[in-house]
Each structure stands twice: as C-alpha cells, then as structure tokens.
Amino acid sequence: MKALRYHGKEHIRCDTVPDPIIEHPRDAIVKVTSCAICGSDLHLYDGFVPGMVDGDIMGHEFMGEVVEVGSGNKRLQVGDRVVVPFTIICGECDQCKRGNYSVCERTNRNKDLAATVFGHSTAGLFGYTHLTGGYPGGQAQYTRVPYADVGPVKIENGLTDEQVLFLGDIFPTGWQAAVQCDIEPHDTVAIWGAGPVGQFAIRSAVLLGAKQVIAIDYLPERLSMARAGGAIPLNFEDESVVEALNELTHGKGPDKCIDAVGMEAHALRSLDSMYDRAKQALMLESDRAHVLREMIYVCRPAGILSIPGVYGGLVDKIPFGAVMNKGLQIRTGQTHVNRWTDDLLRRIQQREIDPSFVVTHTAPLEQGPQMYRTFRDKDDSCIKVVLKPH
Ligand SMILES: NC(=O)c1ccc[n+]([C@@H]2O[C@H](COP(=O)([O-])OP(=O)(O)OC[C@H]3O[C@@H](n4cnc5c(N)ncnc54)[C@H](O)[C@@H]3O)[C@@H](O)[C@H]2O)c1
Ligand SMILES: [Zn+2]
Ligand SMILES: [Zn+2]
C-alpha cells in the first residue's frame, strides 16, 4: 500500500510499504477513505518533537471503511464506516473509566520511555512520536486500528467524509478547549491561533454562549474565516494584542484565554520571541512560549487559560508570579476525543455545525509531501488539507 512516511525533518515521502495485518484479536483494519494533516503533524515535520524514527507512517486524523476485524472484536463488522480518534484507548483502565482518554494507562507501547520523560505514561497515539507508542498512522491506504472494539466512532451514511472526519481530532479539540473555559454568558473568550483548531474553538465558544469571542492571528484568510464563525478578528501584525484585548474588554482583559498555537508561536518584533528562537536554535529550550506569556499577562484575574496547543518539553521565562497572584487556572491536555464524539456527532446530524467549512485543499495521498509544505507555509491560503488515499 501507499503511505506517507517520515524520513527526518521536513522530509515526508509517499512510499510503498507492506499492508497492515491484524496483530491482536481486538484489532481492525480500516481502508482509509479520507485523512487530514493536523497542526500537530507540523511539529513533527519541523523537527520539534523527539522520538520520531525514520520510516514512521504519519497521520492521526483519518476515517474509512472496516475491511477486516479481529476474532475478539464484537463491536465492528466488515463494511462499517468509522472515524478513528487519534487517541488510542482501552476503555477499561481507571483513566478511561473516568473519561480521561488521552491519558489511558494501557495503550502506550512505550510506557517506560514516556514515564521517564513525563513522569507518567500517556495514551498511545496514531502516527506520532515513539513517546506515544510509535503506532503507524492514518495517512495511508490502510491502517491497523488497535483496541478497535472501543475507539472508532461508527458513522451512518448521509454525511460526507468532510463533515465527520474532524470528529477524530480538531473538532473535539476546539470543543474541549472551549468547554474547559467554563464559559458563562458574560464572558469574553480570546483565542490565539486561527488555524483549524482555533476555528473549531471559535465556533465552540460561540455555541457555548460566550458574549464575545476574539480571534488572534496574522493571516487574513484565517481571520476572515474566524469572522465568519462569529469572532472579532485581531491581527497581531497590525496592532498590539494586549492593548486591543484590553480595549475590547473595557480594560478588564478577557475572562478566558485559549492557546490554539502551541510550541511554534511566532511574534514579529517581540523581544521574548527572539529570545525563544535563539534558545530553541541552541537547544536550550524546546518550545516557544510567546502565546503563553501573552495570555498570562492579559487574562483577567481569576480567569482560565485553556491550552490545546501542543508543547513538547521545556518552556522558559513563564511569569508564574502573575499566574499565582492573579489566581489563573490552567487547563490543558491532548484531547479526550471519545468524551465528546457522541454529542458532537449529534450536533453535526442536527445541522448545528458543518465541520467541512474548514477544508480549503483536497488532494490525492501521493501529493501529501507537497501538501505538508503548503499547509506549513500557509501558501495558497491553505487552512486545512484533506488527502484521499484511493
Ligand atoms: N490538544 C490536542 O489534542 C491537539 C489536537 C490537535 C492539534 N493540537 C495543537 O493545536 C495547535 C494548533 O493546531 P492547528 O492545526 O490549528 O495548527 P496551525 O499551525 O494551522 O495553526 C496555528 C496558527 O497559530 C498562528 N499563530 C502563530 N503564532 C501566533 C501568535 N503569536 N499569536 C496568534 N496566533 C499565532 C499561526 O499563524 C496559525 O494560523 C498545534 O499546536 C497543534 O499541535 C492539539
Ligand atoms: Zn492532531
Ligand atoms: Zn485506558
């Protein structure tokens, strides 16, 4: 089969590799009909996430048709149409029982490695670093889905792939980011990053009844999409983010702040981001924390910082004194995808939201390597890429 494989920094190739096979009775094999490139893939592509190995199959946002089912899997049948969450879950451990799926205690095959780095193991993830199990991903014609009797979300016909594909990652990610804000009707929610995750955070914050949603980015097409979703756009190239946010909140600051940017934040002309770039280049710091610092500074006291943006290691110069004295709460994590999928699928079916709005580019899998670059460089007004493997 064909699959997009990692061959080092900025080097993805569409290779021919052996088809996956059932390795465990709970497995299923899914013929991938659509898969997407996620902002988290860019952190791998740009070489910021440790634990990638030459030849790893990429991709964690995918869906398709079940073509083979393990003997112990009583939930799926050949022919089922499924979206596969990027978090691999067992459904039985303490954390899964509590709905804390992204920290499932069983599915990471490299638990010891993860525990050495993070103190504890977290869930296995598709197409990601070996710190999260090194499972082959879904940017491929076929994927083996472990624990397939728990994770996959069955989809009835009548909805297109593009309407449901993002249930596997960015829609629940934006949703969880907003839910974690405990939004109240008088709240201003400021969202850094109007990429795909930011777009879903915006729409989720609106659905959850925020008074005012503000989207911060510098790319006009992303800010236009944010405006269409109900947000006030704020271009950080044109104005001071802190001043503009204070103005829009009568000097009080946003009640809730969402970081939908993560470790590769940029901020032109800001002193702290030059410091970050220098330290990152010298490998003295792994993640650029400009957005975190800005959120801490501008957030209204007693507010909430919700952080879906991915960080990998160490951040530097975090004004923790401000976090403590302002009484800010920090809520973060890889998304507990299956906690949200039933509700979000229902909202799609009831036409409360049509997630396909975010797709700007569709291409065959073979064009994946170019599409990684287009998405990373934000060329051609690219916001979200869907790849078709067949
Ligand atoms: N928590 C999870 O489970 C989860 C799931 C999916 C993605 N993510 C993470 O969410 C983040 C966003 O993903 P995406 O797909 O939207 O990626 P993306 O790269 O397309 O979007 C990031 C956006 O942030 C903007 N940006 C950069 N610096 C900024 C700054 N200083 N202020 C405001 N905006 C800035 C960029 O212009 C870009 O539009 C990534 O870190 C990704 O890894 C997390
Ligand atoms: Zn992702
Ligand atoms: Zn579990």
Mean pLDDT: 96
Rg over CA atoms, rounded to whole Å, is 20 Å
| Class by alpha and beta content | alpha/beta
Q: Into which percent range does the helicity of residues fall?
A: 25-40%
Beta-strand proportion: 15-25%
Instruction: Give unreliable regions as ranges.
Output: none
Specify the biggest β-sheet: 7 strands, mixed
Give the CA-CA distance, first to last residue: 10 Å
**Order of secondary-structure elements:** EEEHEEEHHEEEHHEHEHEHEHHEHEHEHE
> Which ions and ligands are bound to the chains?
nicotinamide-adenine-dinucleotide, zinc ion
Number of helices: 13
Outline: globular
**Count of beta strands:** 17
3D architecture notes:
- There is one protein chain.
- The protein has 390 residues and is α/β, with parallel strands linked by helices.
- Helices cover 28% and strands 20% of the residues.
- The chain is built from 13 helices and 17 strands.
- The protein has helices spanning 39-45, 94-97, 111-118, 161-164, 170-179, 196-207, 220-228, 241-248, 271-281, 290-298, 320-326, 337-349, 368-376; strands at residues 2-6, 12-16, 28-36, 61-69, 81-84, 87-88, 124-125, 142-145, 153-154, 188-192, 212-217, 232-235, 256-259, 304-307, 329-332, 361-364, 385-388.
- Strands 3, 4, 5, 8, 9, 16 and 17 form a seven-stranded mixed sheet that branches. Strands 12-11-10-13-14-15 form a six-stranded parallel sheet, with helices on both faces.
- Helix 13 (368-376) links the parallel strand 16 and strand 17.
- Helix 5 packs across helix 6.
- The longest helix has 13 residues, at 337-349.
- The termini are close together.
- The model has no long low-confidence stretch (mean pLDDT 96).
- It binds nicotinamide-adenine-dinucleotide and zinc ion (2 copies).
- Nicotinamide-adenine-dinucleotide binds at residues 38-40, 42-43, 169-170, 173, 192-198, 216-219, 222, 236, 260-262, 265-267, 290-291, 308-310, 334-335.
